[in-house]
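Researcher: Next entry in the queue.
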Amino acid sequence: MQITDMSVNVVDVGQGFSWGGRMAMEVIGIFVAIETDAGLEGHALAWTAELPAAATARAIELAIKPHVLGANLFDRPRILSPAWRGFRVGLPLAAIGVVDVALWDLAGKATGVSISELLGRQRDRIKACASAPPCDSATACDAMVDELVADGFKAVKLHACGDVRIDVAACHAVRKTVGDDVELMMDAMAIYTRSEALILARALDDLGFRWFEDPLPDDDLDGWIELRSRIETPLAGVDGVRFTVRDYARPAADGAFDILRMDAARHGISQLQALGELADSLGLGCEGHAFGPALGQAANLQVGLAASSTRYCELPVPLGALDLGVERGLELDTEGFVVAPTGPGLGLAVDREAIAAATLH
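Model: Structure for this entry, 361 residues:
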């Protein structure tokens, strides 16, 4: 089957999204649709964060689309090879990643199976991890996590607020409230100095947190290695869209990380799959960073279902708030797990009318 058409649109995914009901946040994404001569469509929708969505969409149109049109839908590495050459001289990684996801979705639909089955599915569900927004007080954080647990989450990732004293107090308050029945993580979003990160890390050690994500900037790898040698809580990183699997290899081997993190929606399913294999070879964990629209969440879930080193599926809260563009998003079962959707490819049915209504240009 040959690819006959490809469209790229910038979409307002958030539609006034409020992160956890507490923090207003603009969520602009790139929607890619790839069509074949057999009438099949592959889709992807990736949040670009601070990366300008319009510029990324234009890059896809100019640098990647010409190599997609007319290609065999299963020739994914060949299709994206010129894009990887372009990446060396400035093509955004997210531009490659979102097209990679759409090609995987198309391959799943062409064969009638999910992406996780194409990758070699190992499980049918993964524990959900709520991606909770930063709070300006320990009391507010405690109340927020209490709500998330009531909503069915058995794992919650906190985000640092910028004041390490408040973050330490919040971690203590939350652990006291939820006890040992809920797994907790902390994401510092690379905002702290080495000394501040160590203060927070030692609190996490005492409280039995599952991981400490992005304690330091991703260019301070010596700091990561030093911090890892001084604490017990596993270090997870990095939440950046400039690292490829090659960039992870040396610092991971040198002891910078316990858990490798990458976003399939922005880096691509192929990159996250390869990162999982790297993690396996080094005895490390690998977790998809799945904050963003439902199709992006599904991309990370599909890889996680097939990765032996993955234990969680991160979801933005409130659950379903970023489900624009799909008829039905990911859901939790009664035990706090995300269950694999039943459809082929990414597994979620796309609502093209909703996408069209939210398209900015």
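Model: Residues 93-111 form the longest helix (19 residues).
Researcher: Noted, moving on.
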